[in-house]
Structure formats: C-alpha cells, structure tokens
Amino acid sequence: MDNKFPGKDISEEDLKSKFPLASSINKKKIIKIDQNLFFGDEVSVPVIAGPNGVENKDLIFKCCEILEKNNIKLLRGNIYKPLTFPYRSKKYFDIGDEGIKILESVKKNFDVKIVTEVMEHEKLEMLKDVIDIIQIGARNMQNFPLISKAAEQKKPLLIKRHFGCSIRDLLGAAEYAMIKNNHNVILCERGISVPHTHKASSRFLLDIQAIPAVKDNSCLPIISDPSHASFWHKWVEPLALGSLAAGAEGLMIEFHPDPRNAAVDPLQAINFEEFTLLIKKLKDMAKVLNKKII
Ligand code: PEP
Ligand code: MN
C-alpha cells in the first residue's frame, strides 16, 4: 500500500517490486570498462572529459593529448547533439555520422575509451566498433524503447538523470536496461530544474544530495556532471570537488582549447590549463578520501 501514491519518495516496496534489479537490495555493482578501469569499486573515480561535441579531428586529437597527459582514460566524444533549438549557429557543423571516422582515428592513435550519446537506436549498429560506453542523455532518460535497444548492445550504459525527474524515476529507467540483462549501468546527476538558481543564465542546479540518495537506494554507480549542471565554467571546479567529497563515483567534465569559441555551450567548458589544474586538485582530494582519479 505504501507505494500506491507515487511521488518522489522511494518505499521499501519500490526497492523490491518497482526496480528490484537496480535497487540497493542487491550487492553493489562494479562496472568494468577495461582491465584497469572500473566504476563503482569504492576506490576508482573515472573522469569522462572532452569538448561538448566532436567539432573536428584536430580539436578532438588536441583534447586526447591532454587526457593522456593527465592520465584520464575516457573521452566525451559526442557526435550527435540534442540541441534545445533546431537552429544551428554558424560555427556549429553537425558532424553526425561523419564523426564516426574521427572516433575511429581516436581509437587508433590514443589510449582512451569513448563515451558517445545515442539519440536514435538506428545509430547503434554503426557505432558499435568505436563506442565503449553508450550515453543516454537527460532528454532521453524516459525513452524506454531507446534504452531497451541500447541495452541489447551489451555495452555499458551511462544514463543521465532528466532535469525534471526524481531518483525514483531514474532508477526506473535503469531497470529498463537491466531487465534486458545488461547490468552495466552507470547513472549520472547533471543538474535539475528548480525555480531559483544562483545565476540568471544557469538553467539547472546540481543536486549533490542525489549522490548519497542514489547510493542509499541503488546498487549502481553514480557520477556527477558539474559542467551541464552549472552551465558556467567558473563553477565547474568547486562543484567537481564537492561531488567527489559527496561520494561521486565518477565525473563528467567539459573542456575545450578555446572554450569561449566552442561551437556549443561556450560558457560551460573549462580550458586546458584549468582542466589540468582541476585534475591535480581532484587527485589531491582523492588521496585524503582513499580514492583514485583515473
Ligand atoms: C551532454 O552530455 O552532451 C548533454 C547533452 O547532457 P544532458 O543530456 O545531461 O543535458
Ligand atoms: Mn550540452
């Protein structure tokens, strides 16, 4: 009876019957990306980093060099972008399927794994040789047919929380993947819509509380994306450090060689120096917490 009036609260009954696979009644899941790269093992905090989108090969190669210098193993390699408005700026070239070739050359030249958002299930087959983690973006968190199809690929999924959805909803989305027998699901807090944020241009508020809340209610790892949450480069560092302190099991960070001239979301990316300094600070903090930034 306690879950007959569904709201935000997660009841004991929900844990058993609404998302029995994603729930904390199970042993904590460790998601293995490769030999030395894990989400959810209590120690590792993998960082997924890169520009908002794959604008061109030169940009992505420069970003991969910075990842390697900082010993970061996961590239944000988005070639399909869910833009809020259908009109493109002059700078923005919708790279789409062309980007697959760039991702292939990343694979040949760098020791990084690739995370890419998929918006249409038709693209899954084309991407299968370049993609290591399939990102389901916030806007598609409740696109259950897409999640089911993506789960069938048997690759790890990164499901971002929709900005208007509860943790209960997020775990329901994860359950759609897990019921397809793919238990390699990573969750991501990326900011929620609230009436009051701290800056006129900030659409979202990072729900840091979601990090311990997901850990209490789910067996799946939870990471944090301070770039999309704040929409503001100056706040990425404090929110990234705050997320690590709150127990985030990974981070997604946007960086760009010339952020103010990035084709998409130029206000939220940090530059190469800021990224390098952030990784250093995260590593220092991780030591105190007995964790490891990778
Ligand atoms: C992104 O990561 O590129 C993105 C669009 O994020 P979100 O789905 O969280 O808005
Ligand atoms: Mn974005």
Largest sheet: 8 strands, parallel
Strand order of the largest sheet: 10-9-8-7-6-5-4-11
Helix-strand topology string:
HEEEEHEHEHEHEHEHEHHEHE
Which structural class best describes the helix and strand composition?
alpha/beta
Uncertain stretches:
none
List the total number of helices. Answer: 10
Shape: globular
Instruction: Quote the distance from N terminus to C terminus.
Output: 44 Å
What is the strand tally? 12
Bound molecules: phosphoenolpyruvate, manganese (II) ion
Mean pLDDT: 96
Strand content: 5-15%
Radius of gyration: 18 Å
- The helical percent reads 25-40%
What can you see in these coordinates?
By secondary structure, the chain is of the alpha/beta class. 33% of the residues lie in helices and 15% in strands. It is built from ten helices and twelve strands. It has helices spanning 12-17, 57-69, 98-109, 124-127, 144-152, 167-178, 210-217, 226-230, 236-245, 272-288; strands at residues 31-34, 37-39, 44-45, 47-50, 74-76, 113-117, 133-136, 157-160, 185-189, 222-224, 251-254, 292-293. The strands form three sheets. The chain has an eight-stranded parallel beta sheet. Strands 1-2 form a two-stranded antiparallel ribbon. Strand 7 (133-136), helix 5 and strand 8 form a beta-alpha-beta unit. Helix 2 (57-69) packs parallel to helix 3 (98-109), helix 5 crosses helix 6 and helix 9 (236-245) runs parallel beside helix 10 (272-288). The N and C termini lie far apart (44 Å). 45% of the residues are buried. The model has no long low-confidence stretch (mean pLDDT 96). Bound molecules: phosphoenolpyruvate (PEP) and manganese (II) ion (MN). Residues 78, 82, 117, 137-139, 160, 190, 228 line the site of phosphoenolpyruvate.
